[in-house]
Structures are given as C-alpha cells and as structure tokens.
Amino acid sequence: AAVHHLTKKLAADLAPRGITVNAVAPGYVPSRMSAGLSSWLPNTEEDTSKNNTEQVIAKTIPLGRMGNEDDMGGACIYFASRAGAWCTGVILNVDGGTVGATQIPLSSL
Predict the structure, then answer these.
(1) Which of 21, 53, 98, 108 gives 20 to 30 Å between its CA and that of 9?
(2) First-last CA distance in the chain
C-alpha cells in the first residue's frame, strides 16, 4: 500500500514538471521472493517441488499461468513508450487477472 500511495503522491507532485510516475504491481512471478510460497500450500503427500508449487499456484490464476520477466518488462516498456506518455499515478496490475477475479463472499460480512 505504501508504494501505491507514494506513486500517486509523486505523480501529483511531479506532473507539473512533465514527469510521470507509475507502478507495476506484479502477480505471482517465479523469483527469490516467491520461492517460499510452497510452505503456504496445504500439507499433502504430493510432490512439493518447485514445478508442482508453480502448477498449484497457476490453477488459482484466471489466465492459468504464473507471470514471467517478459510480462513485467512489457508493462514497463508500455509506461516508458509514447503509448504510456499520458499515464501518471497508475498502478498497473500485471497479475493474470488475479486481483480482478478475486471473489469475496458477502454472506460472511
């Protein structure tokens, strides 16, 4: 949340100088940071290898796969290109639809 707020604040402050500020909010991407996700999976006797962990996580993503460096790079290229020149204060979710497809049951409120 801090990065999102900082992005919007800097975008507002720097826009008069012609500087755009945007952020990429990545979804599940294989990385050192996501390497420990297997410890959060339910304990089963199934294979707990890296490939199985990625398959289990991929099943929860609407597009059916984890992201990769090309997905993140493409978002950054968009912001750096002429196509993204009129974008500032944008938080771009590059997550395969995970945030948009999350269903919260209202009956539990």
Answers:
(1) 98
(2) 23
- Report residue 18 as tokens: 């012609």
* Residue with token string 């996501």: 34
pLDDT tens digits, 3-12 = 999 999 999 9
- Give pLDDT < 50 ranges for the chain: none
User: Model-level pTM?
Assistant: 0.79
Q: How far apart are CA 92 and CA 11, in angstroms?
A: 14
Name the token pair of 102. Answer: 């999350």
Q: Which amino acid is at 51?
A: N
